Amino acid sequence: MALWQVLIGCIFASPGFASEPLTLNVGVYSNPPKIFADDQGRVSGILGDLLSEVAAREGWQLKAVQCQWDQCLQWVEQGEIDILPDVAWTEDRADKMAFHQVPALMSWSQLYGKKDLKLASLLDLQDKRLAVLQGSVQQSYLENLVSSFELRVTWVPQQNIVQSFKAISEGRADVVASNQYVGEQLASKLNLSTSPVMFLPNKLFYVAPPRQHASVLTTLDRYLQNWKQDPDSPYFSVLEKWSLPQTNIVPVFVWWLMAALILGLLLALLIGQLLRRRIARIGDHLRASEARLTTILDSVDAFVFIKDKQRRYQYVNQKICDLFGLKEEQIIGQTDELFFDAQTCEMLRDVDNRVLESGERVTTEETDTLADGTSEMTCVSVKLPLRDAKGKIYALCGIATDISEYRQAQQELHQLAYFDPLTELPNRRLLLDRLHQALMHAKNSGSEGAILLIDLDNFKTLNDTQGHAAGDLLLKQVAQRLGEGLHGKETLGRLSADEFLLVLEGLGKNMDSAVNFATSQARVLLNKVSQPYELNGVPFSGSASIGVVMFSDANGSVETLLKEADLALCDAKDAGRNTMRFYNPVMQTKVNHQSQMEAALRKALEEGNLQLHLQPQLDEGHQVFAMEALLRWQDPDMGWISPADFIPVAEASGQIVPLGEWVMLQACRLLAGWQQNKAMADLTLAVNISARQFYHPHFVEHVEYCITQTGIEPRYLELEITESLLIDDLENTINKMNLLRGMGISFSLDDFGTGYASLGYLKRLPLSQLKIDQTFVRDLLSDPNDEAIVSTIVALGKSLDLKVIAEGVETPEQAQRLKELGCQAFQGYYFGRPAPEAHWLTSL
C-alpha cells in the first residue's frame, strides 16, 4: 500500500500533472499600519503580512492592485480584484461580497483633532468640519448619529485615510474619524491629539467577490483559527511587529551551549524565563485592560469616582478633572470640602455615610455647587459600596450624570406649557386648571368665590394705529399693574389676546360680603388700568371692562362660569366701557332670545321669507319721485319683528352681508318691473347699505351682477350710506363710490348730522343727496336747537349743490316748517307708511 502511495505521488508530482499556482489580485489602499503597498509595490501592513504568511504556506501568488477605498470596494463587488483586506462587516456589504468567518483583526474607531480642540463627546461635533474616508463605515455610522442628534456638521470626505488626517493640518477640517491602528500612527506623526471619543467596535475581514474564492476564504479561516490559539504563531508575530516594540530574545544556540555546560542551570533559567514571560504577558494584558478601561471611563459623559472610608478620592475620571480644573494627582487623597461649598459637602457626606455604613446602593438627584460658587449643576448620582474578598466594605464607587440641561429644558417646557410668554402670567391651560380646583374647593368647603373677566377697551384700535409692538407693551404693563397686591388665594392669568382673568377664592360663606369684596376688587382693577401709560415714549390712556360672576351662579362648572362672565363683560361694554357688571339671568334670557332670532333669521333668508316694503319720498309739490326699500320680517312663531331688533342680530352674527345682497337683488327686480309700468317708470329706488356690506371685497361686483341680471337702468338706483362709512379707510370708500357712480348709480348720505362727517369729507364724496335724520325733525317745532341744525343742513346742501330730504315727517306742521327752512323733499308717516309694492302700484 505504501508503494502505491509513493507511485501516485510521483505521478502527480511530475510536470505533466503539476497545477498552476493560484494568483490572487489583492486590493490595496493606503491605511497603515493595517494595509498599504511598500516601496516595491508589495502588499504590506498587518493584514498584508498575515495574508502573505498564508500565501507562502499555500503557494499563492499575491499581486497588489492599488486603489482608493471606495474604488477598492467597487472593484471587489465587480470581481476585478480577488481579495480585499481590512473590510468591516455590515449587512449591506454582506449582500454584495463574500466574507470568511474568523475576524482577522478587532478594531474600534476614534476621533482625532488638534491638541487645543475640546472633544469630549460626539455632541462636541456641533459646527465642526469632519474628515472621513469616503465610503467607510465610520462615515455611514457618524452620518446616522449626526442626523439622530440633529447636529450641524460639515463633511470633508477624502479618498484615502492619509489625506483625511492631512486635512486637519492643512486647515480644511477640524476633526478626523479613523480606526485606532492608523489613527495612533498618523496622529503622533502629525502632532494631533487623540480624543476620548471611542465608537464603532468592528471586526475586520478579508472579502472576495460574491460567490467566488470560497476555498481561499475557508483557508484563511483555518489559519486564523489555529494561529490565534498559539501565542508564538505568525499571527502574534505580525501584531508585535506592527504595534509593539521588539523584544530582545536570547538566541537558541546560546541555550544549547549553556545546556551543554550546565544542564541544571539551564533548566532553572528556562523555568524562570517561562514564568517571567507569563508574568509579563499577564502584566501586559492587565495594563492593556487598565488602559482600555481608563479610556472608556474618561470618554463616558459622567463623573466616575472611588472614595475610601474616610471619603478621600482614590480614583477620578477625566470629566471630574475637567470639572475641578485640576490634574488627577491633585485630586487623589482629597475630600469634598476642597471642591464644593458647605451645603453640598454636607449633603454628599450624608449620602456617602449611608453607603459606607449600611452597604446600600443609593440613587439621588442632587444640586452641587463648587466651592467658589461659580458653577452649579443638577446631577443624578448612583453610589454603591465596594467590598473585599471577605465581603467587608472598603470604599464606595459613584457615578454622577449632569442633567442640568435636561432640567432646564424641562423647566422651559413647563413654562411654555403653563405660562404666557409675553406677560409671564398663567396661561389659559393653567388658569382653567386652577379655576377648576377653586370650584371644587368651594363646593367642598361651602365658601364663596368669584371670577373677574377683564377685557381691554379699544385694544384692536391701538394695534391698528400704533402697531403690535405697542399692543404687546401695553399688555405687559397691564399685567404688571393687575398683579400688584394680589394675595395667595387670588390667581391672575391671561385668558386670550386682550383678556385677563382673576380668580378669587375663600371669600367666606356670606354672599353679601363676598359680592362686596368682588366689587371692591373690580373697582381697584379698573382704576389701575385707567392710569396713564407711556408706550415707546408715546402717552396713552386706556381702560377696561369687567364681567363678574360668583361661584354659586355657575353650579360648579368652569364652562358655565366663563360663559356667564363673558355675558357680564358684554353687558359692561354695552354700558359704555370702563365699568363692571355682574352676571344676572336676564342677560342669559336676552342671549337665548338673540340666538333663537339668529337661527330664525338664517332660516328666513334661506327660504326667502323676507319682504321689501316701500315708503314714498315726495318733492315740494308733494309728487312722489322715489321710494325707499325697507326690509320687513314676519316669523311664523315670533310674528312681525322690528328691524331695530333683527338688524343688530344680523350684524352680530355676520348675516348682514348675505341679507344686504338679498335686498339688493330684490330691489333691482322691483325696478325692472317698474320700468314696464308707466306710473312707476320714472321713480328712483333707494336701498340702504350697511358698512360691513359696503366694505365686503365683492360688493361692487355684486351690485354690477344685480344690474346685469335684471337689466335695469342704474340711474334709477340710489344707495343710502351712513356716516359710519367715513370713519375707516376714506380713500377706499371714495374709490368704491366713484366706481358705482360711474355706472350711473347715485348716493344719499343717510341720518346726516348724527355721525362723523365733516365738510372736508362731504366735498370729496360723490353724493347727490343729504338726508336729515328724524331725531332733528321730531322736535323741530319745539326745540330751537333742532331747527338750527335743520337750517344749517339745508344751507350746507345748497352750498354743495346737494338735494336735501327730511325723514320722519309725521305732521303737516313739520312739513310746512321744513319747506319754510328750504328743505326740498320729504319722507315720513304724514306722506305714507311703508307698505308692500302691490299697495303702491294701486295707489299710484
Automatic annotation (TrEMBL):
<dbReference type="InterPro" id="IPR001638">
    <property type="entry name" value="Solute-binding_3/MltF_N"/>
</dbReference>
<dbReference type="InterPro" id="IPR035965">
    <property type="entry name" value="PAS-like_dom_sf"/>
</dbReference>
<dbReference type="InterPro" id="IPR000160">
    <property type="entry name" value="GGDEF_dom"/>
</dbReference>
<dbReference type="InterPro" id="IPR035919">
    <property type="entry name" value="EAL_sf"/>
</dbReference>
<dbReference type="Pfam" id="PF08448">
    <property type="entry name" value="PAS_4"/>
</dbReference>
<protein>
    <recommendedName>
        <fullName>cyclic-guanylate-specific phosphodiesterase</fullName>
        <ecNumber>3.1.4.52</ecNumber>
    </recommendedName>
</protein>
<dbReference type="InterPro" id="IPR000014">
    <property type="entry name" value="PAS"/>
</dbReference>
<feature type="domain" description="GGDEF">
    <location>
        <begin position="447"/>
        <end position="585"/>
    </location>
</feature>
<feature type="domain" description="EAL">
    <location>
        <begin position="594"/>
        <end position="844"/>
    </location>
</feature>
<feature type="domain" description="PAC">
    <location>
        <begin position="349"/>
        <end position="415"/>
    </location>
</feature>
<keyword id="KW-0812">Transmembrane</keyword>
<dbReference type="InterPro" id="IPR013656">
    <property type="entry name" value="PAS_4"/>
</dbReference>
<dbReference type="Pfam" id="PF00497">
    <property type="entry name" value="SBP_bac_3"/>
</dbReference>
<dbReference type="InterPro" id="IPR043128">
    <property type="entry name" value="Rev_trsase/Diguanyl_cyclase"/>
</dbReference>
<dbReference type="Pfam" id="PF00563">
    <property type="entry name" value="EAL"/>
</dbReference>
<dbReference type="InterPro" id="IPR029787">
    <property type="entry name" value="Nucleotide_cyclase"/>
</dbReference>
<feature type="domain" description="PAS">
    <location>
        <begin position="289"/>
        <end position="359"/>
    </location>
</feature>
<keyword id="KW-0973">c-di-GMP</keyword>
<dbReference type="GO" id="GO:0071111">
    <property type="term" value="F:cyclic-guanylate-specific phosphodiesterase activity"/>
</dbReference>
<dbReference type="InterPro" id="IPR001633">
    <property type="entry name" value="EAL_dom"/>
</dbReference>
<keyword id="KW-1133">Transmembrane helix</keyword>
<dbReference type="Pfam" id="PF00990">
    <property type="entry name" value="GGDEF"/>
</dbReference>
<feature type="transmembrane region" description="Helical">
    <location>
        <begin position="253"/>
        <end position="275"/>
    </location>
</feature>
<keyword id="KW-0472">Membrane</keyword>
<dbReference type="InterPro" id="IPR052155">
    <property type="entry name" value="Biofilm_reg_signaling"/>
</dbReference>
<dbReference type="InterPro" id="IPR000700">
    <property type="entry name" value="PAS-assoc_C"/>
</dbReference>
